[in-house]
Batch of 4 targets.
Target 1
Amino acid sequence: MISKPLIIGITGASGVIYGAELLRVVHELAVPIHLILSEAAVRNFAIETDYSVEEVRKMAEVVYDNKDMGAAVSSGSFRTRGMIIAPCTVKTLSAIANSFTYNLMVRAADVTLKERRPLVLMVRETPLHKGHLDLMRTAADIGAVILPPIPAFYHMPKTIMDIVHQSIGKALDHVGIEHSLFRRWTGATGKDGNPAVDEGSASYKERT
Ligand SMILES: Cc1cc2nc3c(=O)[nH]c(=O)nc-3n(C[C@H](O)[C@H](O)[C@H](O)COP(=O)(O)O)c2cc1C
């Protein structure tokens, strides 16, 4: 049986590395990816990372034009396992919260919600004014998972990638993709007063 694809959206918030690493990990896990990149995301790859857009696109089975409103993912009859937008701008959050489906990214997110499939929004902005918070509340009310890339420290991150992997691992938990990207908390009962963590370690290969 062919595995249902995961839709990955990448928008132009700071932190497009979250989207790139998500693509890389899901690709390694052999889950088909249908990718939508916003224009602003493409610009931010050049500003913030050493990824070329070609490298990013190559990790997906299908790459859509964000203006292609006739694409498969614009219809609920095309079955997917859900959608993760990493990172998600306030602009795209706003469009999703208001079902203002002006591009394929927002249409695919809206379809994901109406079909009651998981939609994870890794919203990135700081500080947040009340309008941003209201948009997040509205999106959560209609079914989105609001998962800002906020680092945790109980897994003792040593590198930026440790921090990135913890957040994308949390996003993958919501779309039912098994991974061992970070060590999970198992209660503060470890020896020597140290926190107990499971021994899971990342199953992905480091980027070379
Ligand atoms: C370097 C850079 C960083 C940005 N960071 C953010 C951010 O963290 N959050 C945000 O909402 N917008 C951010 N923006 C602004 C968005 O890119 C801009 O609003 C864009 O129109 C969003 O379009 P999109 O949602 O279609 O990607 C940033 C822009 C640049 C150039």
Target 2
Amino acid sequence: MRKTTFYTTLIAAIEDIEEHGYDHERIEYWLVLLIMMAEQTFKDRSKRSARDFLTDQARKYSSERNIAITHKGLPIRYFSEFTNHAQNELNARIAMTDMLIAAVRDEALDKMTRGFIGWASSVSHLTPSATDHVKLRKRLNISDLSVMERRILFDQCDKMKATLGAIIAERYGALAAVWHSRWREPEYNYREDHKSIDEVIMFMPDTHEMRLGLFVPGLPLVTDQSLPGMEPNCKCYFTYLYGLHSIPDIYLTEKGKVAKVLSGY
Ligand SMILES: [Zn+2]
């Protein structure tokens, strides 16, 4: 027997209503079935849940291998696993993702319900059907949703990584961050103003080194704009720099250059 899915139920509903015409009970019967099948589809899709995906990505971000790339100069031996702040961020992102996906699903169910009632109430068994089945099925199908759900998941994941990076940078005293834009990626709809700050070094505000006058004045600060990855569909990211040896000489005062040499590099 063929497996009953939302889609096969939708086809059966359309055929039945075309054959018998609409009446209140018939529409209600099919709607209950359709909503049930839609919810089953959503449940099946959630098997690999946002929780698993985001937890996995958070662990990867915090792995020694990634930290060596994204937090340059941070001695790995100082880096102790997952902090409470990081765990809180992960939990908040999981909750936010679940909420956004639930909202998108509710909206899709409402749209399907309205579309189905709208169509069904126009069908009469006394006149031949003028329904374009391909269009109707497409309009009422909920499968397109998985694309939207994935987009939400990846967007929240980028935001989570940006926040995890900022948490680590603050905790371990990063001196600066380098903004990276992915403008070279084909088909990525990048922001011009983000492309223009690609590879720009921005300094953490009010660090000990800054207060000592080791950096030339007037340098861009990480707080001058929101974190990369926070605006909708922004795929920019920071890599962080630790220790004076990671800061190019052009950003250092004479005092800074001396301190850099004295720091052993
Ligand atoms: Zn961006």
Target 3
Amino acid sequence: MRNLKDPAQRHPEKTHRKVNIQPRKPDWIRVKAPGGIAYEQTRKIMRENQLVTVCEEAGCPNVGECWSHGHATMMIMGDVCTRACTFCNIATGKPLEGLNPFEPGRVADAVLKLNLKHVVITSVDRDDLEDGGAGHFATTIRAVRRRNPQTTIEILTPDFLNCDPSVLELVVEARPDVFNHNLETVPGLYPEVRPGARYFHSLRLLQRVKEIDPSLFTKSGIMVGLGEDRQAVFAVMDDMRAADIDFLTIGQYLQPTPKHHHIDRFVEPEEFEQYKKAAYGKGFLMVSSTPLTRSSYHAGDDFAKLRNARMLKLGRA
Ligand code: SF4
């Protein structure tokens, strides 16, 4: 039995990597320490429903703030990922278990207990499954909607790279409100940062979502501070707009352990503002660009703004 708390067992493929000293965080990266009654309540509901969260597995810095508002991002299909991205803290390897048929119901139940108006559901990559888990995503979306008809649903999916392209339709036809898939970084850094993925495949996936159902909102994000330059970030924005992506998130990369990809630099808050301004200029409906931005950070409030922005654009506000 693997001990996923032990870094060497959690990331066996990273044991041979060189040690990258983690630099001290600058003053502008300040987070609320986890704790408090509401935080514990969120934790309890996750445990009772036997759910995994990306908040914990990825070591998200915002967990203190989000969980004290009952906002947890549930991660379906297990806690072991079949990819080995060099930025990510989720355990890697071959999952030993199949999919849990009770999981969609447990997610739906947790959404009800947390009284969520907006839920974000993500997953590990499951390259071992023929449909990459697309069917399980669809079942989970439907279970949440049945039990919580007023709750809006945002999904953050893998890229379904090795699957038949038609599996994407399974997910889109379940009609999540927001379809998010992160590009994570600029194309030039893919071989180092996201070696198992393909930049243009991910971009095309998001474009196809819009082609299948233009009413869905699409969202994608990148991390900065991995070694990209500013021109490459602007070029990613252009690619995203060409794929008709509505919502862009940009956040600072934070290195989970010394064996992960090194932090190239801490991007200053002013630069995040410049990215935000440029992105709005390029036509995104919604942009979140701050050091602590993560895909699901403030996702409920941002969804309301996103919807309003579309109504305004259509002249229906
Ligand atoms: S930003 Fe997202 S992943 Fe991080 S704690 Fe909040 S909900 Fe969880």
Target 4
Amino acid sequence: MELKIFLLIASICCFAITHVSGYCSITLSQDESLRPKLYKNIGSRKALIHTEGLSYQFNENEVITADCETRVQSPSQFSGKRSIDCKCTTSYIQIDGTSLSKNLPVQCDKIKWNLYESSKQFSWCPTPMASYLLARPLNNIYEYLAGVCYNFDQQQILNIHYAAAYQLSKYQYPTRLQNYSPTVEILDIPNKFVARRIKPTNFKNVEIQEWMKFSQYENHSIIQDPNLYNKSYDKFGGFIELDWWPSLRTGNWRLYEKALREHIEADKEIYDVLAGVSNSIAVPSYENVCRENYTMIDVIYRDNQKIPLYVWHYLKSLKEANGTDVVVIGVNSAFSDFYKEKDLIFCTDICHKLDWLKSAQATFHYKTLGLIFCCDANEVKLSKRLEGIPMASSKPVNSGAQLLPLPLKRPKEEYDDFNEPIRMET
Ligand SMILES: *[C@@H]1O[C@H](CO)[C@@H](O)[C@H](O)[C@H]1NC(C)=O
Ligand SMILES: *[C@@H]1O[C@H](CO)[C@@H](O)[C@H](O)[C@H]1NC(C)=O
Ligand SMILES: *[C@@H]1O[C@H](CO)[C@@H](O)[C@H](O)[C@H]1NC(C)=O
Ligand SMILES: *[C@@H]1O[C@H](CO)[C@@H](O)[C@H](O)[C@H]1NC(C)=O
């Protein structure tokens, strides 16, 4: 009797031990951007593994491929490779005949994006602004993260074009940028595009000084989605910063960005985003006018630097290619009480009509959290009230003398929403 129990226990132990000893695990970094994609090898095919948590366990004789978007950083013996095959054996993980610990940390290099001048001006970037590409060489071609239109005169970003897609989507970068090539690389970005924080003493006018003390504008990135920022945009310093009114940035704009991110993940959405700044803030002045009256005076610091009045996202859904494009506009002014509301909100607000924005938009009209409104992109263009937003452009006029007879059917030139000419197949 006792012998039987002993044998039973012994066999359970044996089973448990051999079973446990068959497991291997790959441990992953806390930082999501450093994690490889893991694939199960099934015959000649590979199936993507959806990992939950910071380690992945697999069985003896299984082979897991760890694939880095950049290259492997650890295990260091394999640093520089794009992907490694990890085979679980009884007592170790084997990679290319090298035996390593059964508990193996695998980590990728951080994605490094470089800054280049673009071969030609983006069609949505008006002259004399400068067009820059954030890109990296990858297997002899370039991969593009974003396009930045920069205003040298005011030393501030005008707009940035990037893609916002759900986590496992193949579409992470905007295809539109492939019409442009990188030329000169700009090195040492933080020293070339120096970050700056406004000090009230930057202003000579005493009234403006007082208003600036009160409103506390801060330089922060135009990219406010924390995942996007941490993954790719935290190295560009002043190049992509603007002077934010903190109440808008940490108030309604944060709520909007959160709702957008949740919508993108939940609905497996993909957007081409053009994010930009327009116009400039003004503050009330009571000098030279009767007591209860005021005039609005422009806030300009250093030589020609301005604080944008509007921060906006032009959202172009690639999934619903036939849907209407929306522009979400934040009022970056601590002084909206001094404007008539219709002077600030210059188009029909449709935030409440967007399903994914329904719960977030409840506070969009509280001025203390920063006003936000949403409009049909066409209405915004027609209003001509947002400086720097791409306008629907008409066919360029041919002013030269007409030497050749006109073709019977003149090919119609069409432009898409960021003014990129649509090539017609002929
Ligand atoms: C803002 O500018 C200052 C320099 O004036 C810089 O140190 C800082 O990193 C910039 N960015 C943020 C987010 O504070
Ligand atoms: C982004 O990085 C900051 C600083 O390293 C960190 O505090 C924050 O939690 C990160 N956010 C995300 C979403 O990863
Ligand atoms: C305030 O200004 C408006 C127009 O600028 C003028 O019509 C009005 O009389 C002024 N009010 C006072 C009290 O001065
Ligand atoms: C796009 O929408 C218009 C009007 O709503 C419709 O006439 C057209 O057929 C749609 N096109 C596609 C490709 O769905």
